[in-house]
Specification:
The protein is an alpha/beta fold. The protein has 7 helices and 8 strands. The strands form 2 sheets. It has a 6-stranded parallel β-sheet, sandwiched between helices.
Length: 194
Amino acid sequence: MNTTHLLYLHGFRSSPHSTKARQMADQVARHHPGVHFWCPQLPPSPRDAMARIEAGLADWPRASMAVVGSSLGGFYATWVAHQTGCPSVLINPAVDPARDLARYIGEQTAWHDPHERFFFQSEYLGELQALDRRGQPPAGPELLLVAQGDEVLDWREMVARYPQATQIVQPGGDHALSDFPAYLARVVAFLQLD
């Protein structure tokens, strides 16, 4: 069944204004205007973020929805896919964010607006651990898009974490996947956007 509802989840310190989120939104608006696209601003608390997502998805059709997530959003997208059974596209996804974000406890600035500040609290690490779905088989089809040049996360961990995914491993590149537009056609084809 084609995707009629698409959720996009941004990464840590990011927002719906991220380049990839805007590119995905533009792709949907231009070429798939019948698809309902939602990219919420996620709060710093993983528990609050999942509550916001669950509330937003409450009336979505499970059989025709999909999720795309980048970095921490990829970790969240894995959880959403497990809850709903929907297809997921994971872009340089965080594999162990509780480990990786431990050094970010304290005040942080938003990537797209340095004047916007938030606090990443130590209890959020436990909230991340509660969302971890490692060791569980995928609940729906997965597309993994990884850059070997990711300067933030280890691409080998991502590839090992998602062995059953359709994997696209890009030589070079970066964590932001700056050449995401080159992969949009593959993403759209995988998602079967209506």
